[in-house]
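Weekly structure sync, notes
Attendees: PL (lead), two postdocs, one rotation student
Agenda item 3: pending single-chain targets
PL asked that the sequence for the first pending target be pasted directly into the notes so everyone works from the same version. It is reproduced below exactly as submitted, 215 residues in total.
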Amino acid sequence: MATPDSLKLDAGRRAWEFTARHPDPSEAGQRAAAELGRLLVAARGVMQEQLTFGEALGRATGELGALGRPLRDALAVITHFGSVAALRRRRPDLRIQLRTRPRQPNAFLAEARSIQRQALADEELLLHYGMHRDLLPRLARDLDRFEAALARRDLAAEGIRRVRADLTAIAQEVYGLIRRLDAMYRPRFAGDPELLAEWTRARAIQENRGRESVA
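Predicted structure, written out during the meeting:
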């Protein structure tokens, strides 16, 4: 679905194309048209940034999802052997549980790191009761990957928020220039209904469901 910003930018593109076909002879009109063109170029760059950040967000989110299940399984094994050791050695501090899920990645990471530290502190005891020796090194690698993917996800999400704000600012400037050009073109074409109608269509904000709102 089109956003208010994209609708304004579409109207700006149509208005700029109209000014290229029917340039205003005044210096103010030429400046406004040139500024409108510059803003549309800037908007294309920002939209490309938005696409890049969106792709990065998708990759990072996918990696978090792929790592979540094996991490949860590894932590479940650790908590199992912790429970065994707690019972056999009367060590209630080893009776640990994983309470959060990977879909809450920040809380999950914090809790997983806590379990990792506790398991490293009692590694020999957990190995004695059957934990595989390669489990903790594998857990460390996967947690590092999870943390890195989480950082990339947060960075991409922040980038998307920033470029959306930039796009909103550009769209608002475009909207202001359309109104400025309208003040020049409407009196100019007052005696030419065909060109005036063409300009009115060009500058109109195309709303959803085909409705138009004059800028």
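Discussion points:
- The radius of gyration is 30 Å.
- The chain has a mean pLDDT of 91.
Action: rotation student to compare against the earlier draft before next sync.
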